[in-house]
Amino acid sequence: MPYVTVKMLEGRTEEQKRALVKEVTEAVSRTVNAPPENVTVFIEEMSKNHYGVAGVRFSDK
Amino acid sequence: MPYVTVKMLEGRTEEQKRALVKEVTEAVSRTVNAPPENVTVFIEEMSKNHYGVAGVRFSDK
Amino acid sequence: MPYVTVKMLEGRTEEQKRALVKEVTEAVSRTVNAPPENVTVFIEEMSKNHYGVAGVRFSDK
Amino acid sequence: MPYVTVKMLEGRTEEQKRALVKEVTEAVSRTVNAPPENVTVFIEEMSKNHYGVAGVRFSDK
Amino acid sequence: MPYVTVKMLEGRTEEQKRALVKEVTEAVSRTVNAPPENVTVFIEEMSKNHYGVAGVRFSDK
Amino acid sequence: MPYVTVKMLEGRTEEQKRALVKEVTEAVSRTVNAPPENVTVFIEEMSKNHYGVAGVRFSDK
């Protein structure tokens, strides 16, 4: 605890994902006073045809 | 806001998914009085071996 | 199947939520060709202090 | 109802997933007094580069 | 890992929830070969006005 | 995009939650190169009787 899920469009590099997990863990740990080893991060990627705002998918723009 | 997630078995066409995002956005916008540009829709697909009812996966039927 | 989750700020009336469930079910059923009795809708409400965009919670605006 | 989601690292066999859905359904049905045909199970797999604890992804260990 | 979420209507007793967490953990541990101390269970309760099937909320039946 | 959900035990102060949303947004924005105004954060709190590890709820320890 805490458990963090980051949902974003696919396409980030491994280097970006590695930094994301590291820095989000630090931000959570620091602000809610939880030891870093208790922080779990999940990345969920979505494709452009499965994500829409205002009724239009990103793959259709 | 609002954020809508539709979880369903894989296999729908792009045309069906496009209509789904459009019409769900309209239904949400109309009923809860939110501007369409504030409505986000995510589609999550699952495969038949990752979905079960009554203890049996759809891939095992 | 499908399973739809609508996440939104608390404060909608029962009448709005009733219409939301009805019309989202119809939109999903129509567009992905699923019988309405197979469509499930979940509403998840969030409070303004648990929701932020651009780093600022809605309760802090 | 109930709806159960099991999120785990990819790599389990079909036989393990089949048993998982069956036995989790039985455990839920028995303990909360719901008929098995009302229990739905979803499996969500994650890859090692999308899952981290203590700021480090499993793919980086 | 694994992480299990059980979503159900509110109203179960503490005794039922305690048994649910225990027996679901055992079922998951046994079937996917994970040590019980690695299994996490979350319970999410929903109210009858936030849950509908076939376009009708359970609170409206 | 991205959408971040932080799930944790209830009991944090408003000050902690405010800082959490701010600093997680900065960490995500910086590492995946997304403008802060595109980052959304949701906080989900759970109670000790709805969260268990190794088959035992935190409320039962």
Instruction: Name the CATH superfamily classification of chain A.
Output: Macrophage Migration Inhibitory Factor
Gyration radius of chain A, in Å: 15 Å
CATH architecture of chain A: 2-Layer Sandwich
CATH topology of chain A: Macrophage Migration Inhibitory Factor
Protein chain pair with the most extensive contact, residues per chain:
A-F, 26 and 26 residues
Q: Tell me the overall shape of chain A.
A: elongated
* Topology, number of strands of chain A: 4
The level of helicity of chain A is 25-40%
Strand content of chain A: 25-35%
User: Which sequence of SSEs, written as H and E, runs from N to C of chain A?
Assistant: EHEEE
Distance between the termini of chain A: 39 Å
The overall pLDDT of chain A, averaged over residues, is 98
Major sheet of chain A: 2 strands, parallel
Strand order of the largest sheet of chain A: 1-2
Structural class of chain A: alpha+beta
Q: Give the low-confidence spans of chain A.
A: none
DSSP helical segment count of chain A: 1
Number of domains of chain A: 1
Task: Name the CATH class of chain A.
Answer: Alpha Beta
GO molecular function, one term (chains A, B, C, D, E, F): isomerase activity
Family (chains A, B, C, D, E, F): Belongs to the 4-oxalocrotonate tautomerase family.
Keywords (chains A, B, C, D, E, F): Isomerase
EC number (chains A, B, C, D, E, F): 5.3.2.-
